[in-house]
Design goal:
The chain has four helices and eight strands, in the order E-H-H-E-E-E-H-E-H-E-E-E. It has 163 residues and is an alpha+beta fold. It has one domain: Aminopeptidase. Strands 1, 2, 3, 4, 5, 6, 7 and 8 form an eight-stranded mixed beta sheet that branches. Strand 2 and strand 3 form a beta hairpin.
């Protein structure tokens, strides 16, 4: 990995973004979505977010992304939610950390005071360690809160941090 930057997505990034997103969806062990994005649904999905950041490596192109949006409305509208995806052949290179840090900055810039993750799969230890290292607090455990691709259920762990 050479120079890595995180920036707001552009329309010409969509094919790479959709491929990365769908890779996580199809694995069935981290995102709640079950249906892969098409070019049309992906364009609409990413356009509907408050902010979408992409991690770009000068040699590998787009290697990860995140979406940022409100977690709730009204009196809880100051709480944001986010999801992160890193291309499987690029994991372990601290791309997720750069995405989360950029997301925290964007959350604050968009007026969110808290970033909350509703459904971190308990077995996603790399994400959990990252969140804890960056100052997120686990709120508890929801038993059997996530249905894995094989139909079994596993626990989820909500996390939060002030921005």
């Amino acid at each position: 990995m050479n120079c890595l930057s995180v920036r707001k997505y552009e329309t010409n990034d969509l094919d790479a973004m959709i491929a990365i997103w769908n890779e996580v969806v199809e694995a069935g062990d981290a995102f709640p979505q079950e249906e892969p994005l098409t070019r049309e649904s992906g364009a609409a999905f990413f356009a509907s977010q408050t902010h979408v950041g992409v991690a770009v490596d000068e040699d590998d192109g787009i290697v990860g992304l995140y979406i940022l949006h409100p977690n709730n409305v009204g009196r809880c509208g100051h709480i944001a939610n986010a999801s992160y995806a890193v291309r499987s052949n690029c994991r372990g290179r601290h791309i997720g950390e750069k995405l989360v840090l950029d997301c925290l900055a964007q959350a604050k810039a968009h007026g969110f005071g808290i970033l909350q993750f509703n459904a971190v799969v308990e077995g996603n230890i790399h994400a959990r360690h990252l969140y804890e290292r960056l100052g997120f607090t686990q709120l508890g455990t929801i038993p059997h809160g996530f249905r894995m691709k094989d139909g079994s259920f596993t626990n989820i762990c909500p996390y939060f941090r002030e921005t």
